[in-house]
């Protein structure tokens, strides 16, 4: 279990969540607990991009545009639009020639992660990615505990299937700590997840058996 | 020149361009000439996805959201938003484990393709992708001629550099036919570009020297 770093201490900051359009839509407040998961992931990806370590971007929020005005001498203004459900995951890109695809979700729950955080088409998309030889995973944060885990697509599919077969609609905290890989939070980058990917690429079927 | 198929005949259709939100913003009319390049590419990617051949999606149009209303008992309505410049290319995904990244552009010009169709950050993004081991390219259509070409990132970078060094601001039709790979248009899929990718993956430095 090389990536279950000891001590899940998070980097905290009082910097306000500016420049995040989504924060206007779904206000997320963690008081002094620091950044949202999305901000941490974006910050980390920017760090990776600036160092030439990986090229991973967040996709724009899908919007259904209904009405656009064209005022004279100024830019087009969207006057009516609606949020659309995404048909894929939020993040994708390339790392050491490998296609990387993931979703980042946080929960305030302390004991479990609700699977309703995903949509069926996102699960299907991740399966398609894996079948095509890409690497699909999710980053899950228990925000109250300040703990973030990288969870391989195979684990997500297993838990999703369990739900579809009538089992529980969530994944317990213990299951995630057992199958997921703890991501140490730091200053730069805030959420250094590439070392875990390196392990997966070296040992594609790594299952942390040593713990079982 | 294994992919310069003879006869650049296009599939034409009178089906109206429905379900394409962008067509409301920038109306594109080709009369009886058939679909826009974007529609052809999306249709082709849907075909690839449904057959399990590749997982390639168009990214949503980036929008800067300024004001959102939350009417009671109904969905949130975006009341003010603006189009943002994309920071990456429009399409990416995974094909046979390889990361694929591209932009699709069409011109009504008959003799050249203006490089102002790209933004500097799109060129930089394609360079970052190539440096990380991904495959970046563009699909260029001369809509008046009904001819579509797959052009490798290396060719685009070369022409872009020429412009930056004071050279011409466009690429001649002859240059594109020489360095690009003609994509045969058909019914299903409409724009079968994967066979060209296969050649590139087999021979990464393929330069069509035989023609020179």
Structure description:
The structure is a homodimer of 212-residue chains. The first copy, chain A, is an alpha+beta fold and 212 residues long. Chain A has one domain: Trna Endonuclease, Chain: A, domain 1 (3-Layer(aba) Sandwich). Helix content of chain A is 28%, strand content 26%. In chain A, the strands form 3 sheets. In chain A, strands 1-4-5-7-8-10 form a 6-stranded mixed sheet, sandwiched between helices. A two-stranded antiparallel ribbon of chain A has the order 2-3. The N terminus of chain A is likely disordered. At the A-B interface, helix 1, strand 2, strand 3, strand 4 and strand 5 of A face strand 2, strand 3, strand 4, strand 5 and helix 3 of B. Strand 3 of chain A pairs antiparallel with strand 3 of chain B, so a sheet runs across the interface.
What is the gist of this entry?
Chains A, B: It holds the Pfam family RecU. With 212 residues, chain A is of the alpha+beta class. The first copy, chain A, is 28% helix and 26% strand.
